[in-house]
Specification:
single chain; alpha+beta; globular
Length: about 120
């Protein structure tokens, strides 16, 4: 799994992805790459941030699907199933990583507030 995305590549991809999403601009803040596939976390400032799925090079291919929203920690299996269904051919390793990321890693665990003593 490759999570790196050099700044030059980010700058080059931004306008291409913005055009695909019919947006003025696109900022990429996360990348997951494996087996020729890419999942990019994109913010346009015009719609909710989304994970955009590509089966090839995003510079030369249109996205396969996109996902946005919030997933609960106990929804990893459902997110993996959604990914495999909506991104046909995606490597299972990448689908597993994505499902784990949005359910376990994306948001830090909440800490319990200390009880108020009166």
């Amino acid at each position: 799994m490759d999570r790196t995305l050099p700044k030059e590549r980010t700058k080059a991809l931004g306008p291409v992805i913005a055009k695909q999403l019919d947006a003025q601009q696109a900022e990429i803040s996360q990348s997951f790459r494996f087996g020729g596939w890419s999942i990019l976390y994109v913010s346009t400032g015009e719609a909710d941030d989304a994970f955009v799925f590509y089966s090839g090079d995003p510079m030369r291919s249109k996205y396969v699907t996109l996902w946005g929203g919030v997933a609960l920690e106990n929804e990893e299996r459902e997110i993996r199933a959604w990914t495999l269904k909506n991104a046909p051919g995606i490597p299972r390793t990448l689908a597993n990583c994505f499902a784990w990321h949005v359910t376990k890693e994306r948001y830090p665990p909440r800490t319990k507030a200390a009880p108020i003593r009166t």
